[in-house]
């Protein structure tokens, strides 16, 4: 009764305020995304304060006095925001703005919401247009690109300038499909970073995690892996940001000394778009610099020679980071400065957000890396977990992602590229999968160990395969099928062993494995996993990181209440496919 009374009174007061704002303006009050965000903030602030007052008053006084107190509080808050409503020109309509209960979004709008999803994987990037009508999400690709990796004399790097141009192109293509974009969200792979120099300029060619310096930093780091795991709970990998930064500082101290910030890749993109500095919490978890309590670890920073001030302030997923810079607005000829929302910016965390996970389910993200894990409420930091290669990464709403990283599809990508160059025409993944299937009927039994360091970044994938499996030597020149099958089998054995270890570490069985990423489109891979693990393999949504991205944008806009509600919307909206174990 109390909440209903206050909700009705709030809407009544807001409607009166709108009428006054309209009367005071010279023209019609127009809807804008600026207005939506400011109104969201005002409503949430007013509602929470007033409802808290009501609850306290209900305990101390009769209902009539608590109602009077709540009305007085609402009137004072609304009056103080009157000038803001007039300034932002937000059109309030009874059919598009409603104060909802706990199980519904805060706002319900008849207008279609358009969100630009920038989803960056280490293999490729994509810009996707997400449209939300209040019930379902429609997600479509508007631009896909690759080629942001480049090789310099010292090793692999990233071409940030090329990346920024591709993102701008994606925004322009999205605007060809809809009149306005209500928000932008960016997610990316973890561990890699870009430096911001003293003038505020971003480093144009940051190092790739497969650069040899990563291993050099890991080998020379003063803290043992066991101590690092105990302090951070994260996977201790040579590619972690902390080892990259340590190596950079040792090899050229001026690099750190002349920099004012270090930003993970999605954070660097957000900085380019808005000029705002922030460090997404889920990305920070991949750095090896974040303690279990969610703060930058002073002791690790000191050991690595990293000034604490170099690290950005941490931001929570689902918050508005800033707005598109005026320079970009003018360059792209946009009508408004689009808000940029900090999503779960690590693509792993974003993908997990996009999967409709339930109890006794695990996830497998098949991208350049394969990542297997499950959501847990408390970080698991046992020595057995560390020795088994597991770690904890950041989820949202208090969740932890307990997972293990495995070598992934980049081995098949390298094999495909190598063979395409050899035969002089493009070999598709489907063709390679068909050839592997044929090889399996011929009794080929070769299988690799993807964890072998030889497969970390092999310059010649065929040579690496034949050295690991001498029985494949006869196939190196003219038979792709057995080579591909050896990679498939190695990847699947890794998944099966990891799934057993995951159950052991979490003390809970896994009945279903939810798969997303490019590997989910490979029917042979998914069926082989189902057969080998004797689990149902549920694929979808394939682009789970993009679905998780838009889910967090909608939560940030106040249009979906929380992750549980978002997953219900995703399950209703996305294509889902099941693979069942076969004998």
TrEMBL record:
Gene Ontology biological process terms from the UniProt entry: rhamnose catabolic process
Carbohydrate kinase FGGY N-terminal domain segment(s): 116-354
InterPro entries xrefs: ATPase_NBD, FGGY_C, FGGY_Carb_Kinase, FGGY_N, Rhamnulokinase
Pfam families listed in its UniProt record: FGGY_C (PF02782), FGGY_N (PF00370)
EC number: 2.7.1.5
Gene Ontology molecular functions: ATP binding; rhamnulokinase activity
Domain named Carbohydrate kinase FGGY C-terminal: residues: 364-555
Keyword terms of this UniProt record: ATP-binding, Kinase, Nucleotide-binding, Rhamnose metabolism, Transferase
Domain of life: Bacteria
Record-linked Gene3D superfamilies: 3.30.420.40
Family classification: Belongs to the FGGY kinase family.
Name assigned to this protein: Rhamnulokinase
Protein species of origin: Rhizobium esperanzae
């Amino acid at each position: 009764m109390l909440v209903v009374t206050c909700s009705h009174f709030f809407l009544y007061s807001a409607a009166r305020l709108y009428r006054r704002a309209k009367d005071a303006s010279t023209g019609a009050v127009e809807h804008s995304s600026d207005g939506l965000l400011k109104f969201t903030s005002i409503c949430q602030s007013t509602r929470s304060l007033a409802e808290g007052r009501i609850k306290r008053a209900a305990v101390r006084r009769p209902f009539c006095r608590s109602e009077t107190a709540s009305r007085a509080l609402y009137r004072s808050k609304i009056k103080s925001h009157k000038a803001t409503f007039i300034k932002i020109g937000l059109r309030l309509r009874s059919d598009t703005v409603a104060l909802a209960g706990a199980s519904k979004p805060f706002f319900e709008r008849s207008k279609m919401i358009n969100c630009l999803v920038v989803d960056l994987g280490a293999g490729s990037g994509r810009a996707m247009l997400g449209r939300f009508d209040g019930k379902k999400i429609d997600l479509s690709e508007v631009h896909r690109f690759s080629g942001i990796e480049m090789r310099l004399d010292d090793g692999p790097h990233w071409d940030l300038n090329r990346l920024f141009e591709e993102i701008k192109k994606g925004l322009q293509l999205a605007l060809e499909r809809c009149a306005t974009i209500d928000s932008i969200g960016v997610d990316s792979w973890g561990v890699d970073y870009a430096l911001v120099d003293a003038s505020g300029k971003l480093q144009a060619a940051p190092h790739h995690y497969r650069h040899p310096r990563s291993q050099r930093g890991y080998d020379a780091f003063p803290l043992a892996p066991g101590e690092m795991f105990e302090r951070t709970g994260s996977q201790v990998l040579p590619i972690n940001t902390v080892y990259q930064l340590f190596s950079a500082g040792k090899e050229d101290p001026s690099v750190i000394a002349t920099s004012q910030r270090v930003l993970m890749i999605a954070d660097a993109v957000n900085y380019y778009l808005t000029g705002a500095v922030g460090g997404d919490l889920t990305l920070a978890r991949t750095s090896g610099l974040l303690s279990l309590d969610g703060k930058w670890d002073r002791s690790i920073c000191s050991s690595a020679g990293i000034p604490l001030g170099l690290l950005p302030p941490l931001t929570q997923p689902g918050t508005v980071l800033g707005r598109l810079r005026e320079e970009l607005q003018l360059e792209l000829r946009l009508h408004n400065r689009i808000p940029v929302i900090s999503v779960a910016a690590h693509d792993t965390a974003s993908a997990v957000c996009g999967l409709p996970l339930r109890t006794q389910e695990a996830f497998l993200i098949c991208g350049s890396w394969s990542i297997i894990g499950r959501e847990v409420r408390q970080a698991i930091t046992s020595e057995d977990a560390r020795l088994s290669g597991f770690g904890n990464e950041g989820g949202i709403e208090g969740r932890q992602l307990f997972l293990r990283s495995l070598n992934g599809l980049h081995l098949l990508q390298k094999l495909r590229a190598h063979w395409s160059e050899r035969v002089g025409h493009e070999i598709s993944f489907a063709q390679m999968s068909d050839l592997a299937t044929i090889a399996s009927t011929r009794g080929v039994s070769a299988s690799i160990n993807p964890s072998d360091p030889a497969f970390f970044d092999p310059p010649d994938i065929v040579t690496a395969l034949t050295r690991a499996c001498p029985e494949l030597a006869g196939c190196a020149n003219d038979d792709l099928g057995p080579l591909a099958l050896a990679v498939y089998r190695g990847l699947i054995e890794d998944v099966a062993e990891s799934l057993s270890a995951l159950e052991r570490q979490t003390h809970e069985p896994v009945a279903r494995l939810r798969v997303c990423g490019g590997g989910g489109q490979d029917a042979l891979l998914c069926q082989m996993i189902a057969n080998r693990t004797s689990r149902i393999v549920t694929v979808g949504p394939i682009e789970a990181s993009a679905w998780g991205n838009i889910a967090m944008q909608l939560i940030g806009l106040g249009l979906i209440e929380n992750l549980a509600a978002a997953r219900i919307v995703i399950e209703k909206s996305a294509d889902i496919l099941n693979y069942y174990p076969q004998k």
